[in-house]
Amino acid sequence: MRSIEKALSVIEFMMERGQCGVTEISTSLNLNKNNVFRILITLEKHKIVEKDELTDRYHLSTGAVVLGYGFIQKHPLVKLSSPLLKTLRIEINETVNLCMLDDTQDYITYVAQEETLKSVRVKSRLGKRFFIKENLSSAKALRRALEGEGGFVYDYEYDTETGVAGASCVIRDYKGRPLGAVEVIAPLYRLSLESIKGDLKKTLENYALDISLKLGYWD
Prior knowledge:
Strand 1 (49-52) and strand 2 form a beta hairpin. The protein has a 6-stranded antiparallel beta sheet. Strands 1-2 form a two-stranded antiparallel ribbon. It has helices spanning 2-17, 22-29, 33-45, 62-74, 76-92, 137-146, 193-197, 199-214; strands spanning 49-52, 57-60, 95-101, 107-114, 129-131, 154-159, 164-172, 178-187. It has 8 helices and 8 strands; from the N terminus they run H-H-H-E-E-H-H-E-E-E-H-E-E-E-H-H. The chain is elongated. 45% of the residues lie in helices and 23% in strands. The chain has 2 domains: 2-66, Winged helix-like DNA-binding domain superfamily/Winged helix DNA-binding domain (Arc Repressor Mutant, subunit A, Orthogonal Bundle), CATH 1.10.10.10; 75-214, 2-Layer Sandwich (Beta-Lactamase), CATH 3.30.450.40. By secondary structure, the chain is of the alpha+beta class.
């Protein structure tokens, strides 16, 4: 079990850092270099990681994509949300994201996206993981729900430095537990605070409710 934990910690580290060398992984995770090397060889054998022969650094490979895709496509939240995400994107013509709360409740991961057809777009969050205490609208809404706030908790972000505006509403499972969030993001100039605090709030609450009902939620 200990060896599995080490291998998973290496995969998580590479997911966050991108290309990594053996020494970098060993130092950052406080693991023996020989252990790290053996882990990487095993992961490479199963196509989870791949070695760049020019730099001797490793990065995640196609096997990791297949594993992630298999999980995402079979998860009820993603399967049941997909049609509604498409409808929401068509309705508002801005990028719509779906994020999932990690089992530890420490992170959120963006697992689905319907991207706007407009030429100017916000940098994609799909496939990325963020700490629950960050100031993203989804993280803020889920944080409040985890702290005990009931209902379909709504929150927003409006960052003048990054030029990104967004809003999110919590999705709940059949037991009423926060499971994830549906999110809209756009460049700041296209998503006003007036809209975020007005029409968009009601729209996202309705979609979050619809997704939650599909997951068996009832109040």
